[in-house]
Every structure is written in C-alpha cells, then in structure tokens.
Write a structure and sequence with these properties.
Length: 242
C-alpha cells in the first residue's frame, strides 16, 4: 500500500493507494477500510469504461468493496477525458455518469451526494483548476442532509468531504498498516488512530502477540505530535519491541 500526503485549503489529505489486482486484494481491504472517503477513478476511453463496469470489472468491484467496508462518502473522477471520441466529449461523460450512478445506487450510495468530475490526470484538466477544454461542464453539485456543496474541480470535491465524528473519549484503538525498522530509532509501527488518543508515554498493548510497551514518540507528516486523535495517520516509536 502506498500513501501520499498533501494539503488542500481545508484538509490534510492522505491518499491510500492500494493495487487493484486480484493478488493484492488483502492490501486493498486494509487500505480501503481506513478511508473517510473513496475516490473512484473511472477511465473514459473507448472500451476502457466498458471493461471496468462489466460484470467482473474493477469499477464495480472497487465501489462495492468501499461501501461494504464502511466508506460511505464517494467521489467519482471520470479520467482520461482527453482520450474520448471526440476528445473531451460531453455525451461520453454524461453516459458514464448515468451508468455509474445507477450502479452505485444499487450498492447503497446516494448518487445525489456523489460528485462526478470529468478530469484528465495526464493533462491536469479539472484537477486543481477548471479546464478550458470542457466549457460544457458547469461544475458538480452534491446534496446531503448536512447541506449542499458545489465546485468545478477534483480538489474542491475533496474539500467538500464531511469529516466523520472522532471518538476521542473511547479507549485507544489503532489498526496497524505497517511496521518499519529504522536504524538508530528502532521499531516504528504505522497506522491510523480509530478511537482514543495516542501520545508519548502511553502504555500500549499489541494484539494478538499480547506485548505491552511504552510509546516513546508520535509523528505525523514528519513532525512530532503531542497527541494523535482519531483519523490521524501516524508513526510511533516503541521501546524494546522487535
């Protein structure tokens, strides 16, 4: 699982990218279950979308997996708009939007709450700023009980994600994503705090090995933290655990 971090106007975003290949389905599940929102990337090229939405296609599989694992917010990026016939085709975008909407509705998502954004990752269209190549696209709108949101590009759709309630009052629970061994520092487990608070000096128990140890330091985005709360993807250093 690869994770990248970047900042938007509102949030620190951690992208968890899990390979879609069948051999790595375990990684996909680990990664997906830790996300607050899924960004489903659908290829708009001729034949590509059809393959993804076919009976055993990845588009179907990934959307179903995300919903089943409890990721209730979704953004759909209709990618490779530069390779439609003709390029940047509005009818093609509308066709894909209609078909994906009907499929995700069957799974359990409400299409009215899902932003559909026509993009080209390669050319950067509608990623960070509105593209001049799709004048027909007036923007995405979403409606949910917490209110409406709208925008033109993908980064604005990320800013419209609703942050989930963070249960800081519950006992600490932090599913591990990885464990690094760093020379001179020691063992550094990495994962996302689900409930409770993690801070230096906390005594933690690792399951299923049932090892108890003290947390020496906590880091996020390469900065030391005084405390990590639910939603934070952190690395922490532990004493005498190999």
């Amino acid at each position: 699982i690869a994770s990248w971090k970047f900042e938007t106007a509102k949030y620190y975003v951690t992208i968890i990218d899990a390979p879609g290949h069948r051999d790595f389905i375990k990684n996909m599940i680990t990664g997906t279950s830790q996300a607050d929102c899924a960004v489903l990337i659908v290829a708009a090229g001729t034949g590509e979308f059809e393959a993804g939405i076919s009976k055993n296609g990845q588009t179907r599989e990934h959307a179903l997996l995300a919903f089943t694992l409890g990721v209730k917010q979704l953004i759909v990026g209709v990618n490779k708009m530069d390779s439609t016939e003709p390029p940047y085709s509005e009818p093609r975008f509308e066709e894909i939007k209609k078909e994906v909407s009907s499929y995700i509705k069957k799974i359990g998502y409400n299409p009215a709450a899902v932003a559909f954004v026509p993009i080209s990752g390669w050319h950067g269209d509608n990623m960070l700023e509105p593209s001049t190549k799709m004048p027909w696209f007036k923007g995405w709108q979403v409606e949910r009980k917490e209110g409406k949101a709208e925008g033109k590009c993908l980064i604005e759709a990320l800013d419209a994600i609703l942050p989930p309630a963070r249960p800081t009052d519950k006992p600490l629970r932090l599913p591990l994503q990885d464990v690094y061994k760093i020379g001179g520092i020691g063992t550094v487990p990495v994962g996302r705090v689900e409930t409770g608070i993690l801070k230096p000096g906390t005594i933690v128990v690792f399951a299923p090995a049932n090892i108890t140890t003290e947390v020496k330091s906590v880091e996020m985005h390469h900065e030391a933290l005084q405390e990590a709360v639910p939603g934070d993807n952190v690395g922490f250093n532990v004493k005498n655990v190999s």
